[in-house]
What does this fold into?
Amino acid sequence: MSTASSSRYTSVAIALHWAMAALLLFMIWLGWNMEDNEARYQLHKSIGITILFLALARLAWRFANPPPPLPEGMPGLEKKASHAVHVIFYALMIGIPLGGWFMVSVSPFQVSTVLYGVLSWPHIPFTEGLISEDLYEIVEFFHSKGAWVIIGLLALHVAGAVKHEIGKEEGVLKRMLPGLFGKSEPPALPARGALFAFGGSLALFAAIAATAVLGAGASGNGKPAGAEAAPVAAIEANWAVDYGASEITFSGLHDGNEFKGTFESWTADVAFDPDALATSKVRVVIDMRSASTGKKLYDDSLKGKEWFALADHPEATVDLSGFKQVADGYEATATLTLKGKPVSVPLQFSLDIDGKEARLQGKAEFSRKALDLGQSSDAGGKWIADTVTVTIAGRAERTR
It folds into this structure.
């Protein structure tokens, strides 16, 4: 019996084998138990991408570190079957995650992917023109059926390992179970090519992840360059906003839980006189790229076409007019122009003027449907309530 034939796999190959086996089993369970569960859905995608790059690293490692030969007493047909199972395994460990990634990329829902809640992951490039319900369903069919193929191969793989361990030929199970047999444990093969296998896989992962970062663009902290709405007459402001003491926030309900976000970059020209409400007017220009919710999945989703569509509409404007005094303070018509479409709602606010200083608090409620937000993925409000509340609070100083 040759030394090579009785050697164990390298420790790296053994670790990858069992780690991926555990991940595959967990992924199958997760795929069957993630319906209507956003957290599990995101975890499923995260582990899928992890399996993809571990499989690439494992394939490269196998190339640099050929496995020990199969037992000499194994029939030729069984050797061919064993090799075939391994080839199909590698094809599925790479193909199924790629299929899932492609499926997410062409889905009409265009749900963002954030790996483990931390790292933005892009859709596959050049798939934007392929987005359709029909293509999504075709890919989803093959993706889901791949799990059954994996289960079948796992059963064959385990059955074969057990058969050869208890059969007359030399067993192969000990080669993948290090540290369990003491002096009877066969020696491990020498390892090489770690940089090639893991460095290459990691470099590819980093390059793809970088495209998500580069594609997001910078939010910027200065004044947005121009408004998207139709030009209006210049506002002769008589108030200077203290941006450090002012904020514009938005809130709503997602899956029954409240979410809240803030626009970190915006400017306002304010011409307001409580004694001349008819001629008072305000224009606010918001850098929509500065929206922040504190949850990366939400922030990434807001950048997409069916939400803020930042690639085409980086700014929004709010024009206040039609001021009038009401019992609890003031009311104005707020016209929000988002993605080039104006939507008007009443804005009620309280205003406390003390000499040259004024403090304001107010809110307005908008409809997602009216604003054309999230209408492809959740037009009926199953996950995200239709009402979005915009709140303003701040301080300003009279300049004239």
About this structure: Confidence is low (pLDDT under 50) at residues 1-5, 218-230. DSSP finds eight helices and twelve strands in the chain. Residues 133-166 form the longest helix (34 residues). Helices lie at 3-6, 11-32, 38-64, 76-106, 133-166, 194-216, 296-302, 368-371.
